Amino acid sequence: MREVAVIGVGCTKFGERWETSFRDLFVQAGALALEDGNLSGERIDEIFVGNMSAGRFIEQEHIGALIADYAGLATDNIPATRVEAACASGGLAFRQAYTAVASGMSDIVVAAGVEKMTDVGTEVTTDVLAAAADREWEGIAGITFPGLYAMMATQYMHRYGLTREQLAQVAVKNHDNGAKNPNAQFQKPITIETVTKSTLVADPLRLFDCSPVTDGASAVILAPLERAREFTDTPIKVLGCGQASSSLALHDRKDICTMDATVAAGNRAFQTAKVERKDIGFVEVHDCFTIAEICAIEDLGFCKKGEAGKLTEEGYTARDGKLPINPSGGLKACGHPVGATGVKQVYETVKQLRGDAGGRQIDAEIGMTHNVGGTGATVVCHIFGRV
Asked: Which of 3, 50, 129, 324 could be stapled to 113 by a disulfide with Cβ–Cβ 3.0 to 4.6 Å?
């Protein structure tokens, strides 16, 4: 296995991109990554693109070929593969790209993610996303993701004493970070009252506990570490990688307050990276709902079960805290174009480790990403470090 580095990154503005097509989004992100990596498209050996459900959002399938075509790479017959793992599609696309380079099969590989979610109505969007849960046992009963995560939050609050205000603080922190991110969908700070008085979605989760419906794309370019400085003075090394699966349906979990796949994927990432929790400078976690961030902090092993709410309240996970969580603003403020989120997390981590994150910059040598599909049926974690 060869050592691998990220040599170029690009990300579009996230939000309701009415004026921009699905094709335009991924072309913009790819062009930014190529420019950042001082590369031309002809140098690319392979492409992996995360996309959850273009077939329903924009009625377009065969996404790998579409991207190769509209990126101007089809004439060179460059292989392009779509990767689908619900909301973990982007993280898994990155893992596949990493594996391709590490194995020696390819040298210069693009990992991208894209989703255009706002071209359909709310009812369709809700149904499309519900397909990432167990349609036969959950969806057929009318349960959607806010309802599933609300069950997790209710049980967690009952068992561990998490308060409504501590849960809201997750959103407050992430919106504060997003206010400093020019690519974020929401760039305005909020208060605890903003969260607790927002519309009730699924008790106890309110509107500001939930990530939004979003359009966007992100792309990163990987290369063997030994060649990385041919393209950039600031390559970022992929230190570790971990993936795990769990039951699709929430009712089959032994504990709905713990995502076993997060525990396993995180452990595998730490084992391959050969670093410890104390070495991590910041983490981009999958905060599709505020309770998801609380669980992620604990399931990744950064504190004991039941402690994350108090740590959040005390500022431990703030941008200037001991372990900053979601300096980008996370899914909550950045937005959540489901196929693109996992790659955007890598984009943010690389920007932070390079020292290019502007007003949200953190001084760190090592960063981590955590990308979740469904309620934790698929989890992908990566650890990155400066060279």
From this structure: 50
Catalytic residue among 87, 210, 295, 334: 87
Give the tens place of pLDDT for each residue, 223-253: 999 999 999 999 999 999 999 999 999 999 9
At the top level of CATH, the class of 141-212+239-386 is alpha beta
**Token couple for 7:** 């040599």
Q: Where are the domains of the chain?
A: 4-121+214-236, 141-212+239-386
Closest CA to 329 of 105, 155, 175: 175
Q: Residue 303 catalytic? A: no
CATH architecture entry for 4-121+214-236: 3-Layer(aba) Sandwich (3.40)
Please report, for residues 178, 181, 380, the alpha-carbon distance to residue 188 in angstroms, rounded to integers and kept in the order given.
Answer: 7, 10, 29
pTM metric for this prediction: 0.98
Residues 41-52: what's their mean pLDDT? 96
Give the position of tokens 């599909």: 373
Residue of 175, 286, 336, 382 with catalytic role: 336
Q: Is 87 a catalytic residue?
A: yes
